Amino acid sequence: MFDELRDLYQEVIFDHNRNPRNFRVMENPDREVEGFNPLCGDKLTLFLKIKDGMIEDASFQGSGCAISTASVSLMTEIIKGKTIEEAEEIFEMFHKMTTGEDGEIDLDAIGKLAVLAGVREYPARVKCATLAWHTLDAALKNKEKSISTE
Amino acid sequence: MSFDVEKIRADFPILRQEIRNRPLVYLDNAATCQKPQVVIDSIVKMYSHDYANVHRGVHTLSERATAAFEGAREKVKAFINAQSHKEIIFVRGATEGINLVAQTFGKANLKAGDEILITGMEHHSNIVPWQMLCEETGAKLKVAPINLQGELIIEQFMALLTEKTRLVSVAHMSNALGTVNPVKEIISAAHEKGIKVLLDGAQAIPHMEVNVQELDCDFYVFSGHKLYAPSGIGVLYGKQELLEAMPPYQGGGDMIRKVTFEETEYNVVPYKFEAGTPSIADTVALGAALDYLSEIGMAEIAAYEAELLSYATEKAKKIKGLKIIGEAAQKGAILSFVLEKIHPHDIGTMLDSLGIAVRAGHHCAMPVMDFFQVPATARASFAMYNTKQEIDTLMTGINQLIEVFG
Ligand SMILES: Cc1ncc(COP(=O)(O)O)c(C=O)c1O
Question: Using CA atoms, how far apart are residues A139 and A147, in angstroms rounded to an integer?
């Protein structure tokens, strides 16, 4: 059962959904941005500590589906210790991977995030995976206090 | 006559297919329902034999098309028991019907300080047109609250019915919860105070007999696509004297009697509200759907669906971690639910992999989601062609996905 779904719901995703990493409110964050997907009601708040162009700490709060929770959880893990430029590069690659524009994806850089590649077969779910990253993008560019996928 | 679901299923070609290698179990009927062969045939016949523009040609095809189109109006009139065909206005759907009333009746009758009363379980299409009207007129939108069963709190509703209220607009049946509102009570209380009532019948009409004269509602709207008819066609019923007093909605062809550059004389109702070329074939197909439903019988459909709903509710209650959202005593065939620790979106995708179509989301009723403090729900909504066996498939699927999520 659910065999066809194995590409979408990999064990890593279940793991992060059950035990999301960096799931906490941050004291005195440098950036705090809310992401919202009105289509499914997913809501998250992303907190960042940034020093000298480097992401020192990342955490989040909120509720969402397994895909979006795993995506934001994995994201907070991977961006910690990266510079803003590096994080933006990963976002670009992640975006390409989830929307199906393969080719130049550096699987090493993308690392664990590769488990989310399966969403591209499920157009209705792509936004679940990318919400975290659009929120990060807004936070890094210091644009809005809240963003929406629609 | 006994209700033969297998015979009905055979009338719906789309149901005979596999989705992801499993027989399709279509449980998203509240969003839109599937079409019987007679409706599909009606569209094919119209475009193959009888199609031309309506109300404007003297040639044979135009006369045929006009007769078919006006025939559909007569069928709608009979189906909801309106007094006259003049009370049946064709619109695109429930949404357009509500907007039409807001922009015509609303603008003509509301001023700053007046109130419009809705309930806490409305679809966005019965909220936003009134908010827009309030912005334009300075009127206020009042919302009668619901309880944790998803029922309108009738005492509070009555308390909000004041001298300031000009219009009450409520769902006959809620799409997010399945609740059937006590509309007769609402209407008679409103009428005692001289207040007009609009019923949003988008969800109610496929599930029960609707008799507008018996209800005594002032306006009733519904969409064809939820009633086994095509999308793009719907109905606004209005009492004739109200319609006659209302200003027109859109301007254009068909809604006029005489036009000069200085002034225009409007057509009589219902044409006054039907500017431009309508969705001709779809309207005729709506008539075909109504014929089909009348043959089966709305009372029979209601009885069968009540059986489906109680079967599904009973099964759902046995699933640990499943919470039904909407447990009104009076309910139509909708089962909205959430699962502990599993997001509705995941439920939707997982069930789809088993060939089961349910809706996961806010169902265009975000305030209802906020009230129940859930981001979204999963919703199985039943139609007359669904079976107990399909409900078993759904429940097995839910149990399996709970296991996988562990
Ligand atoms: C209760 C209710 N009202 C209004 C509507 C709007 O119908 P439509 O989108 O066909 O105009 C819907 C459709 O979901 C509904 O369920």
Answer: 10
Same domain for B398 and B287 = no
**B292-305 residue pLDDT tens:** 999 999 999 999 99
**B13 in the same domain as B88:** no
What residues in B contact A118, CB-CB < 8 Å?
Answer: none
Q: Chain A interface residues facing chain B, Cβ-Cβ under 8 Å?
A: 1-2, 4-5, 8-9, 14, 17-18, 38-43, 63-67, 69, 122, 124-125, 128
Domain parsing of chain A, residue ranges: 2-148
How many Å apart are CA B212 and CA A31, to the nearest integer?
Answer: 57
B260/B400 same-domain check: no
Contacts of residue B379, defined as CB under 8 A and 6 or more positions apart, other chains included, come to: B28, B30, B176, B334, B335, B336, B337, B358, B359, B360, B363
Question: Is residue B212 located within the same domain as residue B331?
Answer: no
Which domain range does residue B48 map to? 40-295
Domain count for chain B, please give it. Answer: 2
Of A2, A38, A128, the CB nearest to B345: A128
In angstroms, the separation between the Cα of residue B357 and the nearest Cα of chain A is 14
Contact B375 A40 (CB under 8 A): yes
Give this prediction's pTM: 0.93
Closest approach of B122 to chain A, Cα-based (Å): 17
CA distance linking residue B222 with residue B171, whole number of Å:
10
CATH no., domain A2-148: 3.90.1010.10
Asked if this assembly's ipTM is beyond 0.95, the reply is no
Q: Provide the mean pLDDT of chain B.
A: 96
